Hints:
With 201 residues, the protein is mainly alpha-helical. It folds into two domains: 21-84, Fe,Mn superoxide dismutase (SOD) domain (Helix Hairpins), CATH 1.10.287; 96-199, minor pseudopilin epsh fold, CATH 3.55.40.20. It is built from eight helices and three strands. It has helices spanning 21-43, 53-60, 67-84, 96-106, 109-122, 168-171, 175-186, 189-199; strands at 127-134, 137-144, 155-161. Helix 5 runs antiparallel to helix 7.
Amino acid sequence: xxxxxxxxxxxxxxxxxxxxxxxxxxxxxxxxxxxxxxxxxxxxxxxxxxxxxxxxxxxxxxxxxxxxxxxxxxxxxxxxxxxxxxxxxxxxxxxxxxxxxxxxxxxxxxxxxxxxxxxxxxxxxxxxxxxxxxxxxxxxxxxxxxxxxxxxxxxxxxxxxxxxxxxxxxxxxxxxxxxxxxxxxxxxxxxxxxxxxxxxx
Length: 201
């Protein structure tokens, strides 16, 4: 079964004015689609052809001979996770168990926000900022290019894409403004809370 581009969980214009329909058209319709197409071509006829995205990522991570497969598989997964990490009228603060855990592990919600923004802004070149659960503790991490927490003994709860194609049409070189807007107006705390609940069940 070839992989298919998953639909966005909202309309292309649903995140405006913070992320434009134009950005989502290119980002989802061109970039994400491109990773799906590349992955399907790379695994066709191989022993990875019938494996899940997660299985492919874990099987190819760190293997120099399979770096192209890893990059495309991880980018397919990362982007799908990113779309769900945002929602229309997002932002604000989490509630319940996740809110309590953030306060316990970071000291305050504001401290978490500063760490998360710093991870995204401070990622040199292309990559991702993540909120992850590692050995029972919440952490903010950043990864380069297609790297993700799946093969690093971490459970991802939330991500922000900081590749330039995620924000350049709307923010140009102002990555800090994009990161701040992501936290204030876009982040989907319901998605992160559901991932946290599943990880700690």
